[in-house]
Design brief:
It catalyses: N(6)-acetyl-L-lysyl-[histone] + H2O = L-lysyl-[histone] + acetate. It is found in: Nucleus. The chain is of the alpha/beta class. The protein has 13 helices and eight strands. It has an eight-stranded parallel beta sheet, sandwiched between helices. The protein starts with 17 loop residues before the first strand and ends with a helix. About 3% of the residues have low confidence.
Length: 356
């Protein structure tokens, strides 16, 4: 039997399926500024959405911190124990001075925000099934696997969200990961290496971190990009391969890793996609999910420029303007849109038979 968790609690229908907590943001004596990652970008996204009157505090689903028992659904106890050593966390987060902090501070100021984002991704997985779509404003720690972290990723939130769904939600037995961060998602790839229930599509800069050749064996649809790839080529490849992936895999849920480190000028991504290109990319993925009637969970993943928060907010606003996400639609859609579609098709078939 699955363990008891606080992450699958009932969410009021008045809430948007947008998950966030102020605890996502990492701030401690300026140490977060020693990594190119904007460790406060998640709060900035929410503030932009509030300014545009899309959401308010009481309409957001408040993320809860993943407990050790939650994390053990995927992670080994040995790995979680390693995180009690500050030098291990310093290596994973790529912030060397963390090495000198007492671990109780590291737990509170660095790992608790990451555990809360991880809880948010797990929660958003269930919300996506219930409402048809969900966005965790954080998460997307795609370099972390069950027994190893890296690249600012300490917990395997994508793997956890999928495993929770497989264990706890009837009718969810196949998942497709669409990873469009600039970096290869080697964490979830290692976790699902021999799992035929999980189909992985990964589009990334072939020349940058992590270059994990072993993990690449898990990718069912691999699109490797060159330095400086621009909008036209990129969007054409995304459109073609997202359709191909969904036609091949026919999943019960899409996990969309929507990294913004593909942005032109990103110090780590090495690609040259415009802000408008990122907004269009997200639109392509959400439209494909809608057309195929597959629930979608989006996580925000990497993005190493100050302007990425504004771009993420603009993309969410665009999805809303196009009615690819909508609160009323979400609350009125099926508990499981795929099941609802099957019911409607069955009724239609019976009607057609009676008319013959």
């Amino acid at each position: 039997m699955p363990h008891r968790t606080e992450l699958y609690h009932e969410v009021p229908p008045t809430c948007w399926p947008i998950v966030y907590s102020p605890d996502y943001n990492i701030t401690f004596m300026g140490l977060e500024k020693l990594h190119p990652f904007d460790a406060g970008k998640w709060g900035k996204v929410i503030n932009f959405l509030k300014e545009e009157k899309l959401i308010a505090d009481d309409l957001i689903v408040q993320a809860r911190e993943a407990t050790e028992e939650d994390l053990l659904v995927v992670h080994t106890r040995r790995y979680l124990n390693k995180l009690k050593w500050s030098f291990v966390v310093a290596t994973i987060t790529e912030i060397p001075p963390v090495l000198f902090l007492p671990n109780f501070l590291v737990q509170r100021k660095v790992l608790k925000p990451l555990r809360t984002q991880t809880g948010g991704t797990i929660m958003a997985g269930k919300l996506a099934i219930d409402r048809g779509w969900a966005i965790n404003v954080g998460g997307g720690f795609h370099h972390c696997s069950s027994d190893k972290g890296g690249g600012f990723c300490a917990y395997a939130d994508i793997t956890l969200a999928i495993k929770f769904l497989f264990e706890r939600v009837e009718g969810v037995s196949k998942a497709t990961i669409i990873d469009l961060d600039a970096h290869q998602g080697n964490g979830h790839e290692r976790d699902f290496m021999d799992d035929h229930k999980v189909y992985i599509m990964d589009v990334y800069n072939r020349y940058i971190y992590p270059g994990d050749g072993f993990a690449k064996r898990a990718i069912k649809r691999k699109i490797e990009l060159d330095w400086g790839t621009e909008d036209t080529e990129y969007l054409q490849k995304v459109q073609t391969h997202v359709e191909g992936a969904l036609n091949e895999s026919r999943p019960d849920i899409i996990i969309y890793n929507a990294g913004t480190d593909i942005l032109d000028g990103d110090p780590l991504g090495g690609l040259a996609i415009s802000p408008q290109g990122i907004v269009k990319r997200d639109e392509v993925v959400f439209r494909a999910a809608r057309n195929h009637r597959i629930p979608i969970l989006m996580v925000t993943s990497g993005g190493y420029q100050k302007r990425t928060a504004r771009i993420i907010a603009d993309s969410i606003l665009n999805l809303h303007n196009l009615r690819l996400i909508d609160k009323e639609l979400a609350t009125s859609e099926a508990k499981n849109p795929k099941v609802e579609l099957m019911i409607r098709e069955s009724i239609l078939d019976l009607t057609n038979l009676s008319l013959q």
